[in-house]
């Protein structure tokens, strides 16, 4: 799939920067990306999105200093300057793309407010689907972030064709602050979504035996709402390494490869024999393990199973069995799937659970937002009655 990314706000810009970095490194040219922000310094901090593709908006209103956590201003500035954003998108070329993906942290100001506005306009203008990848804040970031995210998401699900969610709180470690975890979390985001969004592209290794093309991803997402993604990897062991393993036992090593970053190679071992059972096992681990948004997978309407790895490790029967297993476990009956050959020492499984009906974290977010709204209204009421009587103001 050819994706046009728009990184909106700080988190969105950083994540799209990483997608572009990976695309350049692999030489795959599947991704195009721009960054939009009200804060000049955030745009300057990016490394891989070209300077001309970094768009500063709201200069007359906030003078390049950002909108803070005021997402209403974020939305307003975006609406005011939508023409310049759309013309920037247009001039980068859209004729060969399959989808737009807007990436943003939903708890802040610029991306939170701007994303739904941009989704609405892109949908009006282009025929290609418009997806969002929204980062939701951890409760410890404070009520305002949750309130912002709830309002943004409530709007976004009506504007975008589907919204992928990544939950910061599900991914930060115990005792770790969200801020110090950003880089690691962003790696986790890119690792999963880069595989998914690259499905169907012809890489150096050719096409898969059971290709997942962009229309299959688009059809899986057509129910709208929110979507969560699972992921698991398994090391491929060559005969030689197997022999070494036999001698040395379960040694660990760090490997840098297609799936990004350094990984501890202590994952389940994928042997040549019994391949289809291993694939089913890998897909099960992807779906039952930590999802980008923890949710009740049995409420997903549709799913897509994607295996990426060396062609020798792919197995048609395994993919079919894994699809059936997923189908037995979700609400709907539509499960698509296939493989994608890459040069890697791992096989990766990505399971996209589309249009999820129940996710406790989203409910929690909406509940916090409802309470926060009441508190905001109450405090406004207090303020308005406090100065009502007794003292004459200087002027009316
Ligand atoms: P904006 O620049 O006004 O759009 O605001 P941010 O992008 O900073 O969005 C704030 C939200 O995004 C908060 O919930 C932050 O925790 C989260 N956030 C900010 N930067 C990152 C990042 O690099 N990675 C992740 N995962 N979340 C981030």
Automatic annotation (TrEMBL):
PROSITE patterns: TUBULIN. One of its GO terms (cellular component) is cytoplasm. Keywords: Cell shape, Cytoplasm, GTP-binding, Nucleotide-binding. Pfam families: CetZ_C, Tubulin. InterPro entries: CetZ, CetZ_C, FtsZ/CetZ, Tubulin/FtsZ-like_C, Tubulin/FtsZ_GTPase_sf, Tubulin_CS, Tubulin_FtsZ_GTPase. CDD domains: CetZ_tubulin-like. Belongs to the CetZ family. This is Tubulin-like protein CetZ. The lineage of its organism: Archaea, Methanobacteriati, Methanobacteriota, Stenosarchaea group, Methanomicrobia.
């Amino acid at each position: 799939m050819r994706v046009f990314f728009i990184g909106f706000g700080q988190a969105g810009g950083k994540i799209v920067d990483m997608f572009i970095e990976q695309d350049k490194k692999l030489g795959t040219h599947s991704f195009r990306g721009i960054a939009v922000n009200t804060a000049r310094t955030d745009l300057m901090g990016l490394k891989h999105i070209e300077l001309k593709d970094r768009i500063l908006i709201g200069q007359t209103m906030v003078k390049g200093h950002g909108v803070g956590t005021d997402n209403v201003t974020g939305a307003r500035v975006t609406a005011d300057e939508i023409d310049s954003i759309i013309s920037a998108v247009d001039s980068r070329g859209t004729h060969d793309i399959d989808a737009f993906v807007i990436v943003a942290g939903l708890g802040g100001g610029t991306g939170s407010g701007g994303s739904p506005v941009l989704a609405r306009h892109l949908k009006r203008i282009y025929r290609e689907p418009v997806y969002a990848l929204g980062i939701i804040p951890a409760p410890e970031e404070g009520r305002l972030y949750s309130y912002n995210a709830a309002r943004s998401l409530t709007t976004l699900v009506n504007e975008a064709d589907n919204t992928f969610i990544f939950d910061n709180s599900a991914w930060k470690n115990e005792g770790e602050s969200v801020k110090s975890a950003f880089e690691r979390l962003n790696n986790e985001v890119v690792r999963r979504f880069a595989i998914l969004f690259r499905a169907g592209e012809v890489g150096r290794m050719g096409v898969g035996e059971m290709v997942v093309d962009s229309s299959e991803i688009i059809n899986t997402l057509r129910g709208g709402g929110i979507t969560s993604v699972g992921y698991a990897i398994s090391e491929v062991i060559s005969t030689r390494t197997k022999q070494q393993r036999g001698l040395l036992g379960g040694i660990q090593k760090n490997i840098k490869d297609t799936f990004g970053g350094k990984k501890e190679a202590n994952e389940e071992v994928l042997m040549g024999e019994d391949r289809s059972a291993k694939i089913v096992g890998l897909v099960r681990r992807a779906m039952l393990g930590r999802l980008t948004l923890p949710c009740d997978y049995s409420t997903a309407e549709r799913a897509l199973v994607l295996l990426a790895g060396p062609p020798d490790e792919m197995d048609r029967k395994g993919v079919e069995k894994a699809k059936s297993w997923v189908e037995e476990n979700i609400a709907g009956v539509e499960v698509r799937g296939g493989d994608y050959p890459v040069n890697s020492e791992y096989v990766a499984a990505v399971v996209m659970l589309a249009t999820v009906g129940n996710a406790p974290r989203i409910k929690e977010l909406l509940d916090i937002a409802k309470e926060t709204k009441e508190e905001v209204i109450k405090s406004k009421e207090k303020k308005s009655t406090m100065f009502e009587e007794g003292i004459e103001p200087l002027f009316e």
